[in-house]
Amino acid sequence: MTKTVILISGRGSNMQAVVQAKIPNLHIAAVLSDNPQAPGLAWAAGQGIPTAALNPKDYPSRTAFNQAMLELVAGHAPDLVLLAGYMRILPPEFCSRFANQTINIHPSLLPAFPGLHTHQRALDEGCRLAGCTVHFVTAELDCGPIIAQGAVPVYDSDTADTLAERVLKVEHQLLPQAVADFAAGHLSIQGKRVINCRIAGEAEQD
Ligand code: GRF
């Protein structure tokens, strides 16, 4: 079983997509948050998944909060840490502790537009394609080895909100599939590249 801890900060629709996918060999041990009011926490609790939140305001410094979150996550001894809309930058200690076992979903076609406001930036640059990326997390923000990407067209009438909605539908497909591939042991990291032996197997059959 791949014991998994999911970190969220808000509505948690990607977390819901992963839970609802009922992925073989995946056990969701907990959904954790830096936001006690995150709507996704209540949803997860309603599914019978253990939840917990740490409020950064309860800590004297960002370092103290980060250390507490690291200990909370480590207490579950997870095989996989899944960032599903977790809006904090993980400190280097976290990234090294859970190296090659932390996965993030980011709403752009990386390496374009790391960081925030990805959809508005894609519109401002006149991109004709936008999308999302699932990647392993390293200490460098949104730069880890890419597991999967999905693209959508950008329409002339798009706003950041309409584009976000179109991309989100793809996120909900892409993330559960990437997690399933991780849990099935299909992914191996070679430098910056991720080799997915499920896909390689399909290609060989073509
Ligand atoms: C998603 O767009 C995800 O790519 C980004 O934050 C958003 C979270 O949405 N990292 P949700 O909380 O999963 O609904």
From TrEMBL:
Query: Would you tell me the protein name for this molecule?
Result: Phosphoribosylglycinamide formyltransferase
The active site is formed by H106 (proton donor)
Coiled coil regions, renumbered to chain = none
State the source organism's domain of life: Bacteria
The Formyl transferase N-terminal domain sits at 3-179
Q: Which InterPro entries match?
A: Formyl_transf_N (IPR002376), Formyl_transf_N_sf (IPR036477), GART (IPR004607), GART_AS (IPR001555)
Residues recorded as binding (6R)-10-formyltetrahydrofolate, renumbered to this chain, are R62, M87, R88, I89, L90, N104
User: Could you tell me the gene encoding this protein?
Assistant: purN
General function of this protein: Catalyzes the transfer of a formyl group from 10-formyltetrahydrofolate to 5-phospho-ribosyl-glycinamide (GAR), producing 5-phospho-ribosyl-N-formylglycinamide (FGAR) and tetrahydrofolate.
Q: Where is this site: Raises pKa of active site His?
A: D142
Family, per the entry? Belongs to the GART family.
SUPFAM superfamilies according to UniProt: Formyltransferase
Q: State the Gene Ontology terms under molecular function.
A: phosphoribosylglycinamide formyltransferase activity
Q: Which reaction does it catalyse?
A: N(1)-(5-phospho-beta-D-ribosyl)glycinamide + (6R)-10-formyltetrahydrofolate = N(2)-formyl-N(1)-(5-phospho-beta-D-ribosyl)glycinamide + (6S)-5,6,7,8-tetrahydrofolate + H(+)
* EC class name: transferase
Under Enzyme Commission nomenclature, its number is 2.1.2.2
Please tell me where N(1)-(5-phospho-beta-D-ribosyl)glycinamide binds in this chain: G12, S13, N14
PROSITE patterns with a match to the protein in the record = GART (PS00373)
